[in-house]
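subagent[fold] <- orchestrator: predict structure for attached chain, return tokens only, no commentary.
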Amino acid sequence: MASTPEFVEFVVEQFNGSGHVTARKMFGEYTLYWDSKPFALVCDNKLY
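subagent[fold] -> orchestrator:
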């Protein structure tokens, strides 16, 4: 099951105030970037 955009948005909001965190689709799931550096994955609505 693929991650939902709503869950990814929720995860990104949790990092608010910790720097510039963004999410981009990669291989059908999402990679989170902190100041343009990849640091986490969201797969099947789970944060890794």
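orchestrator: received. Logging for downstream: The radius of gyration is 10 Å. The longest helix spans residues 5-14.
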